[in-house]
Design a protein that fits this description.
Elements: H1 18-34, H2 41-48, H3 62-87, H4 94-107, H5 109-115, H6 119-122, H7 129-138, H8 140-153, H9 163-181, H10 191-204
C-alpha cells in the first residue's frame, strides 16, 4: 500500500556515493544544528572534508542541496512505513495508518520542519516554490489523500460519502494535528493527540 511510488519525485538523479554522499551527510548534520540560514556551502564542504567547490559539482545552490535532503528524508520515511505495514498489516487500516503516517512525518527533523512550517529552521525556504511543491505533493495530507481510493476499494472506510468530502475531512484533520505539533519543539508526536486523531479518523472516514 505504501512505498516510494506514493511519493512524487522532486529531484533528478540521486547523489548517493563518494564525495556527494559525504556532502549530504555533512549538510544534514549542520542544517539540524543551525537551520537553513545558519549554514553555508563552505561550512558544508569543511565538515565533509572536501574542497570548497565540491558541493557545487552536485548542487548549484544551497537550496538545491537542502531540497534533495528533504526529498531523501521523505523517501526514507515512506520506506520505514512500508516496512512497518509489512510487519504489521493491521496498520494499513485508515484509523491506524493516518496517525502512524503523522507520527512518521514528525519523527524526522527535516520532514517535521517542512510539515509544520518551522520558520526558525527553514527561514526563506518556506517561500521557495520548490519547497511548497514538495509539501503539496509529498506532505502527509497529500500521501494520505492518494491512499483514499485504496481504502475505499477494499471497503476499509465508508463509501456512503464522496471521496472529495473524505479527502477534505482528512486534510483538515491532518492540518489541525500538525498545527498543534508546531507549538512543540520536541521531535515526535504527542501520544494523546495521536490517539485523538485515531478516533477522529474512525468517526469521519
Amino acid at each position: 500500500m505504501i512505498d516510494n511510488r506514493t511519493m512524487t519525485t522532486m529531484t533528478g538523479e540521486p547523489h548517493a556515493v563518494g564525495k556527494a554522499a559525504k556532502v549530504l551527510a555533512a549538510a544534514e548534520e549542520l542544517f539540524l544544528v543551525h537551520g537553513f540560514k545558519g549554514v553555508t556551502m563552505s561550512a558544508v564542504a569543511q565538515r565533509a572534508h572536501v574542497g570548497k567547490g565540491t558541493p557545487y559539482l552536485y548542487w548549484r545552490t544551497k537550496e538545491d542541496l537542502f531540497i534533495e535532503l528533504v526529498a531523501r528524508s521523505l523517501a526514507d520515511t515512506l520506506d520505514d512505513l512500508a516496512a512497518r505495514v509489512g510487519e504489521e498489516p493491521s496498520l494499513a487500516v485508515a484509523e491506524h495508518l493516518v496517525p502512524t503516517v503523522a507520527e512518521a512525518w514528525l519523527a524526522r527533523p527535516l520532514v517535521r520542519a517542512l510539515q509544520v512550517s518551522d520558520d526558525a529552521f527553514l527561514g526563506a525556504l518556506l517561500d521557495n516554490p520548490r519547497t511548497r511543491a514538495i509539501l503539496a505533493e509529498n506532505g502527509a495530507p497529500a500521501v494520505l489523500r492518494r491512499l483514499l481510493p485504496i481504502w475505499r476499494e477494499h471497503g476499509s472506510i465508508r463509501t456512503d460519502r464522496s471521496p472529495d468530502v473524505q479527502a477534505s475531512a482528512l486534510e483538515l484533520l491532518a492540518a489541525g494535528f500538525f498545527a498543534t505539533q508546531s507549538r512543540s519543539a520536541s521531535t515526535g508526536a504527542d501520544p494523546d493527540r495521536a490517539s485523538v486523531l485515531r478516533i477522529a479518523v474512525a468517526d469521519v472516514l
